[in-house]
Write a structure and sequence with these properties.
Elements (H helix, E strand, L loop, with lengths): L6 H17 L19 H20 L17 H12 L10 H14 L2 H13 L4 E4 L15 E5 L2 E12 L6 E7 L10 E7 L5 E6 L8 E12 L3 E2 L5 H18 L5 H10 L21 H32 L6 H25 L15 H7 L3 H4 L4 H11 L22
Parallel strand pairs: 1-4
Antiparallel strand pairs: 2-3, 3-7, 4-5, 5-8, 6-7
Amino acid sequence: MDFDDTPEEAAIRLDARRFLDAHAARRPVDDSSHLAAHRPNTIEADRRHRLEAADWQQTKLAGGWGAPAWPVEQGGRGLGPHLAAIFAEEERDYDVRARYFQVGLEMVGPTLLAHGSAPQLERFLQPLLRGDEMWCQLFSEPGAGSDLAGLATRAVRDGDEYVISGQKVWTTAAHLAEFGILLARTDPDVPKHRGISAFLVDMSTQGIDVRPLRQIDGAVHFSEVFFDEVRVGADALVGGLNAGWGVALTMLNFERSAIGGGGMIEWPQIVNLARDHGVVVSAVGRDRTGAPKSGADAGVVTARQDLARLWSRLEILRFLGYRVRTAITRGEPLGPESSVMKLAVSGFYEDVGNVLMSLQGADGMLWGDADPNGGVYTGIFLAQWAPRIGGGTDQVQRNIIGERVLGLPPEARPDKAAPFKDLPRS
């Protein structure tokens, strides 16, 4: 695969840069302010950020960059994920609130395009594209995380409605979202994968209780969501009755691709931190503060090796991302490639977190106002475990790779053929 820009890619990149230069300011390479998302935040700050993100989304939409991978007839540019990623690469260099609507634009929207009915597309895609309505993914449950098909939330038909009862957890931005795409069990008499349906849910519906979860760094990004006999219309069903597992797989593949498409930290910020601590020395032998550095210290040598390793892994991730998005653009079924990408991303973030803490030295033990880095890098260290869990755990990805790539015998699943109602529940 040739990773240099083709003439078409170069033209798209130039067009993207012209748009960004006309509507946004370039972020200085030593500016880490956009990493503040990893500092302790408040729900009020999230709402303020959303308004800023909506303004930027509408600016992009007016310029034809609101969702470049979407079909032209739905407001996109018809570029496909591979070419659309060029804009995302360029956007990272500008002082804008990007990817705030990632769940909707990169996961829900493409899933609806694949499985949604015509009325659903007409009702939901344009408000989503404008940033008017925010979405969340209502999949994981207290007893159904890695084994998502074991979910217990139920939806029972009652005339022209379904009545939903159950609980979801670790739902990103549920406290901000107007709508969610939910998995529920509609037939307990068949094996667990075959009795699941997907629904579009208005988060303001009576019977829905959203409870934000406070994280270890003080931030609030996730919620647990309770459904107490929540009624939704039969037209909220996505993909057909008991066809929810296929909808879920589509969305999870888009999620894994999206996780690999953007990072918690970028290479310039890693290098700037290293330079601040005397690890990276300028051509004249001085760091950014002007102090001379010999570079002979063994710790400095080790840190430079760490930086070289991170750069290599970052390049590998970039190439893997190209492969995944190219496969999607060609219409090829996305299989284990997304799992390889997801596993590589989670390992990279753990490595980044550890290197950042090492570079900070004793400063890494500080927090809040006492931390000269404002808690940004320590926050990234604390958040490093999230990619190993969200979007399918590392163990699940290894099983997929082992079975579908390496040809290893599949893991024994005695519960796969039994009706869900007969499975033991804790």
